Amino acid sequence: MARLGKVLVTGATGTVGRQVVAALADAGAEVRALARDPEAARMPAGVQVMGGDLSEPDTLHASMAGVGAVFLVWPLATAEGITAVLDVVAEHARRVVYLSSAAVRQHEQHVEQLIDGSGLEWTFLRPHVFAANTLRWAGQICTEGVVRAPYGAAAMSPLHERDIAAVAVHALTGDGHVGSIYELTGPESLTQAEQVHIIGEVIGRPVRWAEVSPGTARQQMLARGWPPEAVDGILDAQAEMVNGPRLVTPTVEEVTGASARTFRTWVTDHAGVFRDTMKAALIHEYGDAGVIRHEEVPLPVPEPDEVLIRVAATSYNPSDAALRSGFLQAVLPVDLPYTLGFDVSGTITQVGSDVGAFTVGDRVVGRLDHGGAAAEYVATPADALVKAPATVSLADAAAIPVAALTAWQAVHEHAHLTVGQRVLINGAGGGVGVFTVQLAKHAGATVVATASGRSAAAVRTHGADQIIDYTRTPIADALDGRVDAVINLAAISPEAAAELVLLIRPGGVIVSIATPVETPADAKVTAVHFVARNDPKQLTEIVELIDTGTLIVDVSESHPLADLALVHRKSEAGQTRGKITIVP
Fold first, then answer.
1. H or E segment at 442?
2. Are residues 371 and 411 in the same domain?
3. Is the preceding omega at residue 337 within 30 degrees of 0, hence cis?
């Protein structure tokens, strides 16, 4: 990374600028975001938001202090005023990356010329057709499943805004880009009709192209308030694309080392915009697994503080069955119908206006206290989410939140395990157990684990020093001496719980997430019964342990969302082990 100091991003709340800010932050650069209204900008953590307005150059000096490079988006349709802005930029920075366009319209040509004469190191980005232009079809697709427009045979190479940002980051922070003009396109030439077909394939329902005349289209665009010159420019450009398919350049890959994202990828990242329904697993009443329905429901619309996630997977937890059965009504009342699923992993497809920590395309994982993850999409507060681990598949990451947070709090907050202690983990073969064993070992404890023959091998793999098959041998008979702590993860009888207390040395602790444990007054043992809470900070630490290889995510089974009732039945019959993911 070139030593240029901080990087200032103008147009930071726009389609490209927001992606540039996020990509710079991910790359470890010091980032400032310029915004007319800093309070409303909502940028990722660590990004400094500065007030300023390009139309008032004197407001830019504070934001420019200490800046070495600037990403410049000029929002005006004239070059008037750019000279004063460039004077301020040149006073503070060495480098500017200017977002121009492939058309190089008259004002963009003028801006490029002025930058070239400013003495700054410069790079010009000339993107061709934005994939995001297809968002104008979203209303028709949602309501009619059809796009009515002219020039369906017009071919172009749609470009993902994240690829523009990736090239910008290399030009802003790397060497070898000064004086370069980068023509940017997507990796394939597609007609507008082909783009519509791809949208339909991604959202899972037919979408067709309906050709209308250019004259009709022009009248409709003017009626919506478009300037005549803009309308004519768009229609003329599309007409040219019918006879001469647009250029496909390798520039994104040449600059970034990664292939440009396909239009299908862009649609997948934004699929929620083109859909108004989705599949979900929900209950309309409490009861056995038969009350779970796999239905078409309205697509959720995120609130200002929420994001919309395309769900990669959720996971099954025993609490799902307890909620479905009605056993949790007193402690977790819900409104019916209710969509199941507390764990979520997926990709953000839409960001609320007040969200700054994430952007479209981010891979995330989280625990959803309101449920709703047993669906193709879910809207949830952004502050419940963290970035997904990079070392496991996104679908497998759904196995982490509820189970790992429960294990973390049992080991660190309630049992307080430390180096040299000895702990008995009862029910180590379950979804929480595999994380509890690993975290106890990471804390330095000697781990004795109970597990049936079906799960013993997995528990041993995760670090248990001794395994007791409770189906064959009483725990007390197999245990050599007392332990400092017991972590009970199994629904056991009060009598069995009392027997566990006898295995703990005086001054020890028994922690239970299931059956509450009563301890005799003379036992000198502390008993803790707890319900795990949501804690994104702890979840972030857990993800870091996974990415460093300290924790392993063990997914024993994966099932489609339509089979969720089957998973509930198998679990309640004792026919499952470990974590089970549910994929839409």
1. helix 431-442
2. no
3. yes
Rounded distance between C-alpha atoms, residue 153 and residue 194, angstroms:
8
Claim: this prediction has a pTM higher than 0.85 = no
Q: Which two tokens stand for residue 3?
A: 């030593």
Q: How sure is the predictor about 37, in pLDDT bands with cuts at 50, 70 and 90?
A: confident
Q: Across the chain, how many H-helices and E-strands are there?
A: 20, 27
Contact 111, 100 (CB under 8 A): yes
Above 90 in pLDDT, residue 75? no
Supply 7's token pair. 């990087």
Interval 466-480: pLDDT, tens:
998 888 888 888 888
In this prediction, residue 244 carries a pLDDT of: 73
Angle between helices 564-572 and 318-325 (to 10 degrees): 100
Number of Cβ within a 10 Å radius of residue 546: 23
* Residue ranges making up the domain that contains 469: 403-529
d(CA 475, CA 498): 13
Question: Three-state SS for 546?
Answer: helix
Distances (CA, A) of 10 to 34, 42, 347: 5, 14, 26
Indicate whether 455 and 307 sit together in one domain: no
Question: How many independent structural domains does the chain possess?
Answer: 3
Residue range 448-458, pLDDT digits in tens: 988 887 778 88
Residue with tokens 């440009």, as numbered in its chain: 260
Positive or negative, the Cα torsion across 220, 221, 226, 228?
negative
Confidence of residue 3 (pLDDT cuts 50, 70, 90): low
- Residue 539, in any domain of the structure: no
Cβ atoms of 72 and 99 within 8 Å: the answer is yes
Is residue 566 included in any domain, yes or no? no
In this structure, is residue 495 part of a structural domain? yes
d(CA 448, CA 50): 55
Cβ atoms of 17 and 73 within 8 Å: the answer is yes
The torsion angles phi and psi of 561, rounded to 5 degrees, stand at: -55, -35
- Do 298 and 417 sit in the same domain of this protein? no
Selection from 116, 118, 42, 110 nearest residue 85 by Cα = 118
Domain boundary among 396, 418, 438: 396
- 239-248 pLDDT per residue, tens: 888 887 678 9
CATH number of the domain within which 284 lies: 3.90.180.10
Q: Which residue, of 396, 429, 464, is where some domain finishes? A: 396
pLDDT in tens, 233-283: 888 888 888 887 678 999 999 999 999 999 999 998 888 788 878 899 999
Provide the token pair at 498: 């009392």
Mapped onto helix, strand or coil, the DSSP state of residue 347 is: strand
Neighbours of 503 (CB within 10 A): 19
Residues near 554 by beta carbon (within 8 Å), at least 6 away in sequence: 399, 434, 458, 462, 578, 579
133-170 pLDDT, tens digit per residue, is 999 898 889 878 899 999 999 999 999 999 999 999 99
Q: Residue 170 falls within a domain, yes or no? A: yes
CATH number at residue 432: 3.40.50.720
- CB distance 341 to 373 below 8 Å: yes
Phi, psi at 281, each rounded to 5°: -105, 115
Per-residue DSSP letter, 421:
-
Other CB atoms within 10 A of residue 53 CB: 14
503 shares a domain with 354: no
